[in-house]
Design brief:
Length: about 450
């Protein structure tokens, strides 16, 4: 019932990844120079999940309600006390409020960009000069696939990835999956962009079809050798690439293996846009968060299966208001309760499995929203203060980092930058000291990964 329904292009995309591995870009955890595989201490055995609230999440109705501000500024959902004394969240986040001691909220994150595309790419890249998203940087060092499991190291989970019934929901992958100056092969694997990958990887395929795939990989290996690329153990590379297609990678994408009671705890299927939004037009319907809960389940399963970087998207946070768009009331009536349910379920689930220190969750979006509610009942783009929260990853939780000013419009303490966020995430994924002394690592990526300073309060 919950197995992912993938479109016909996926097989082509996955085999393109196979082409990349067979032609020398990366094979099962080996980067071009083999650094990650030959030096496993470089990787810390952890995973990162970035929940990207596309459109620009409001800081007021999430983690900085500012109820002391004037009515036209403060959270329209009120506030709810959290498990951290003196700290409140927006009023539609009661489950997360109860788990605040397992989170760190950053109230001083700014980058100053207020245009969707540039801001979205900047945030996902952590502002790094290559322009590549953080998952692509990770895969450039770790390799395209996990050496032990064959799992793609950089994966994108959109609502559409959860099945054909969600194909009409908002989809914008380009703003969260760019590779910048890195090769295109490091783009995240996106199951919703294409096809038969899960079915093709299952062992119940006919022998002739499997034979065809092995033959294809032999041809790819021949091309690799013809290109005279510098790899050792060519036969091993071929076998590993083939194993990615047929061994247990597919199981990670199959939610039917989960306890139905757990899936129900995650379930956001009943969280539709408000009736008023639906009656006006169909614009709001594509922002329904009905798939978000199961997207978060899938993210956890991918991490357990060895994926190092997972991006989960949730659209609809561009709440300007007006007849053809979400008002703030439309948006927070569906989106914030869905985040509350799905993310709290994820935090509890990861904790029960003993994975809290192994999986870092990052919640953010391209920018924040203007302090003052506009005449249409919404908030506009605002890059001067942005939503940011962390959970797990072995970092220090149960705190608030930084302060916003009296109207939650700018940092009132030292700003946290996108490069600080990047450095924090890479500190979780890599032994940065080991990376600094490692030879053979691409110099541009090495410079990016070793030059930043993590958020000190989290260490």
């Amino acid at each position: 019932m919950f197995s992912i329904d993938l479109s016909n292009r996926s097989r082509r995309q996955f085999l393109q990844t196979g082409v990349a591995t067979a032609s020398g870009l990366s094979v099962s955890g080996l980067s071009v120079n083999g650094e990650a595989a030959e030096s496993p201490q470089l990787l810390r055995g952890k995973s990162v999940v970035v929940l990207n609230l596309q459109g620009g999440p409001t800081q007021f109705e999430t983690f900085d309600p500012k109820m002391t501000a004037p009515r036209e500024i403060r959270s329209i959902t009120g506030e709810v006390a959290t498990s951290i004394p003196g700290v409140t969240f927006g009023g539609t986040l009661p489950r997360l409020a109860a788990l605040a001691h397992k989170m760190t909220i950053v109230k001083s994150y700014r980058h100053g960009i207020s245009s969707h595309g540039p801001a979205a790419m900047h945030v996902m890249a952590g502002g790094n000069p290559t322009g590549a998203m953080m998952g692509a940087l990770f895969a450039r060092i770790s390799g395209l696939t996990n050496a032990s499991t064959g799992m793609p190291q950089n994966t994108l989970v959109t609502a559409r990835a959860m099945g054909d019934q969600y194909k009409e929901l908002y989809y914008n992958s380009e703003r969260v999956s760019q590779t910048g100056s890195l090769p295109a092969a490091y783009k995240p694997f996106d199951p919703s962009a294409g096809g038969e990958i899960v079915e093709n990887m299952k062992l119940h395929l006919e022998a002739a079809r499997l034979g065809d795939r092995r033959g294809l990989l032999r041809e790819l290996d021949f091309l690799r050798k013809q290109a005279d690329l510098r790899f050792r153990a060519a036969d091993r590379f071929q076998d590993q690439a083939f194993n990615v297609l047929v061994r247990g990678v597919a199981d990670a994408f199959d939610l039917s293996k989960e306890d139905p009671r757990l899936l129900e705890r995650y379930n956001t299927g009943a969280m539709e846009p408000s009736d008023g939004a639906k009656k006006r037009n169909s614009y709001a319907e594509m922002f329904s968060p009905v798939a978000l809960g199961h997207q978060m389940v899938l993210a956890r399963r991918l991490c357990e299966a060895g994926c190092g970087f997972v991006t989960v998207t949730c659209g609809g946070w561009d709440m300007h208001g007006g007849g053809k768009e979400f008002t703030m009331h439309d948006g927070v009536a569906s989106l914030t309760p869905a985040v509350d349910r799905a993310v709290s379920a994820f935090i509890e689930d990861v904790d029960r499995r003993g994975l809290t220190d192994k999986i870092l969750l990052v919640i953010t979006g391209e920018f924040g929203r203007t302090p003052r509610i506009n005449k249409n009942g919404g908030r506009d783009h605002w890059g001067n203060l942005c939503t940011l929260a962390f959970a797990g990853g072995g970092l220090q939780m149960g705190q608030v980092v930084g302060r916003s000013d009296r109207i939650a419009g700018e940092p009132a303490s030292t700003p946290i930058s996108s490069s600080d966020v990047l450095a924090t995430i890479m500190h979780v994924l890599f032994d940065i000291g080991e990376l600094r002394v490692r030879t053979g690592v691409p110099s541009d990526v090495k410079q990016v990964l070793t030059s930043g300073q993590p958020i000190s309060e989290l260490l």
